[in-house]
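Subject: sequence -> C-alpha cells, single chain

Hey, anyone have a minute? Need the predicted structure for the following. Not urgent.
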Amino acid sequence: MDVPVRPCPLGKVIVTVPGTAVNLATGSTQITGSNPATITNNMDAARARRIDFRAPTASGGMAGNTGRIYVGLQNMDKVTLIGVIFYLDPGDTFTFDNPQQALPYRLADYFVDADNANDYLTGDFDPS
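Reply:
Had a minute. Here:
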C-alpha cells in the first residue's frame, strides 16, 4: 500500500557558528491540521513519518555550502562523530523514512552543525 506524501518545507536551517548545533525545528514551518494552508512556526511538537535533508550547492545565484553538514543529537561532536547520525557534503541528500510507524521522528530531537559558518541544510518532512 502506498502511503500518501504531504511534504512540508523545513526552511533554511543555518549554522552561523560552527560547533554550536542548531535545532532542526528552529528554522522550520509545518502544515498542520486538515487545512494545508495553515502554517505554524511552533515546531517543538512537530512529528514526521519522513524527513528529507539536502545540503545545497551554489546554483541559480544562490550561495551553497562550502563544507560538511552534520545531523545528530543535541550534544553531538562533529570531530569525534559521537552523537552524529549522518553527515552531508555539498550536494548530498539523506532521508529518514519509516512508513510502518506513525510519526516516529520528532523534529526537535535533531540538531544541525557545520564545518563552516553560514552553511545550511534544507529539506522537507511528511507529517501524514
